[in-house]
Amino acid sequence: MSRQTSFHISTVRSPDDLAATIVLFTAYAHSLGIDLSFQDFSTEMSSMPGKYAPPRGELLLARSTLDTSPIGCVGLRPLTSEGCCEMKRLYIPPEGRGVGMGKALVDAITEVAVRLGYQEMRLDTLPKMTEAISLYRKNGFVDIEPYYDTPIPGTIFLARDLRKGGDGND
Predict the structure, then answer these.
(1) For the CA atoms of the chain, what is the radius of gyration?
(2) Each residue's pLDDT tens digit in the chain (170 positions)?
(3) How would you classify the pairing of strands 7-11 and 58-64?
(4) Who contacts 75 (Cβ-Cβ below 8 Å, separation ≥6)?
(5) pLDDT at position 95, please?
(6) Parallel, antiparallel, or unpaired for β 120-125 and 84-91?
(7) Is the dihedral of CA 169, 135, 156, 74 positive or negative?
(8) Around Cβ 78, how many Cβ atoms within 10 Å?
(9) Could you give the angle at the alpha carbon of 63 between the alpha carbons of 57 and 65, nearest 5°?
(10) What is the DSSP letter of 81?
């Protein structure tokens, strides 16, 4: 696939969009090079949309405007903490990177979280994901204490205040 420069982001509602999102989530999991069984990844995929389902969650899918191929995704799900949600599985295959899609997906899922009334968005990432970490920090995410137990050493936990003025960029 050639480098994508034009894309459209939409909510996942159709069976085809859900299947494409599952393919991308699975590619994301394989790209990490770690076993996600501690997150019960296989059950998450088999029960999609699961916790990402509206009205408290959301899945977004980016498709090429050239050939409508799926080229990026991100999920949002509620956490047990009041007013708190989690961004999960932001993924853009290597051939789609470098055109601003990551920022566009982060912005879009953040807008969804604000619209749904969440006050804080959290996420976890791995130290080797330097480009993603930079993107998150540029978008107002700051380091926080772990919000769940993980067997993966070095996991980085980040959060962003979604209330007006909470990101320091207003």
Answers:
(1) 15
(2) 445 469 999 999 999 999 999 999 999 999 998 988 888 999 999 999 999 999 999 999 999 998 999 999 999 999 998 899 999 999 999 988 889 999 999 999 999 999 999 999 999 999 999 999 999 999 999 999 999 999 999 999 999 999 975 544 44
(3) antiparallel
(4) 21, 25, 52, 57, 58, 59, 60, 87, 88, 89, 109
(5) 84
(6) parallel
(7) positive
(8) 18
(9) 140
(10) S
CA 144, CA 35: separation in Å to the nearest integer? 24
Report residue 113 as tokens: 């979280």
Name the token pair of 75.
């999920």
Cα separation values, 23 from 91, 113, 119, Å:
11, 24, 30
Other residues' Cβ atoms within 10 Å of the Cβ of residue 132:
19
Q: In the chain, what are the helix, strand and coil shares in percent, each to the nearest 5?
A: 35, 25, 40
Integer Cα distance of 159 and 144 in angstroms: 6
What is the identity of the amino acid at 112? V
| Residue in this structure with the two tokens 């107002």, named with its chain if needed | 140
Q: How far is CA 115 from CA 50, 147, 162, 170, in A?
A: 20, 23, 10, 17
The predicted structure's pLDDT at residue 170: 41
Give the residue carrying structure tokens 């991100």: 74
